[in-house]
Specification:
Blueprint: H1 3-12, H2 14-20, H3 27-34, E1 39-44, H4 50-64, E2 69-73, H5 77-93, E3 100-103, E4 107-110, E5 115-119, E6 133-137, H6 144-150, E7 160-165, H7 173-180, E8 185-189, H8 199-209, H9 211-218, H10 232-238
Parallel strand pairs: 1-7, 1-8, 2-5, 2-6, 6-7
Antiparallel strand pairs: 3-4, 4-5
Helix pairs in contact: 1-2, 4-5, 8-9
Length: 251
Amino acid sequence: MSSLVRRLTHALDPVLFARACGIDPDAMQQRLLSSTSRKVLLNCCRQWGKSTTAALLSLHEALHNAPATIILISPSQPQSTELFRKVHGFWQQLDGAPRAEQESLTRMSLDNGSRIISLPGSEKSARGYTAHLIVVDEAARVPDELMVAIRPTLATTGGRIIAMSTPKGRRGWFFENWNTGEDWERISVKAAECPRIAPEYLADELRDLGPLRFSEEFECQFIDSDTSAFMSSLIQQALTDEFEPFLHDRR
C-alpha cells in the first residue's frame, strides 16, 4: 500500500488508524472512534481504555483534519499531561507522521499546522483558545465552571467535544447532561462488557468495595454522595402532592 493510499485510508477510517498505532480496538472503542457526533458523553468503567481511545481520536484529528487545535483537559495538570503522553507516544510510533516543530511535556505543534495542548481543570486556564476538538477526561470531576468556560472555544469552528468519565455522584455537569442534556451521543461501557477485565477481578472488587461503590466504579451508576443522609430516590418519592388528607376524629 502506498503512503498516499495509507493516509487516505486512515483519514476515512479511525479504526484502521488505531490499528496502525498498535491498538486493536474492541467493539465499543470502535463505536467511539467511528462516531461523527459533535457532542459525545462517555460513561465508562475504570480501566476500559478511555484515555487510550481519546488519545487516538486526538491524534487522528491533528493529522487528518489539519490545521486543528486539540485541547486535552483533566481535573489536574498531571492527569492532562498523562493523556498528552499517550497522544505523543502514538505519534512517535506512527510511520509518516508530520514532524513536530515544537514539543514540551504539555503541548506539541506539528508542521501541518495542528496543535495538541493539555490543560489543568481550571476555568481560567481554559479561556483564550479556539479549538476544533476538546477532550475532557474525568468530566464528572472537573468544576462546572470549567465546562461553561471551555465550550465557547468551539463557537467558530463547528468543532467537537468528547466528555468522558466514571460517574461521581448524582450532581454536577456530567450527571445532569447524561440524564437530561440535549443533542449528546451517549456511550456507556460497563466492566462486564470489557473483554480485558477478568470476571474474577470484578468479583474481588465487588466483595472489597461493596455494591454501592462497585456500581459507581464498574457499572456506570450514579450513586449518592457518602455524606447524604438519605438516597435521592427516597427524597424524590417524598416530594409528592399525592397523599390522602388527614381527618381528625373529634369523637
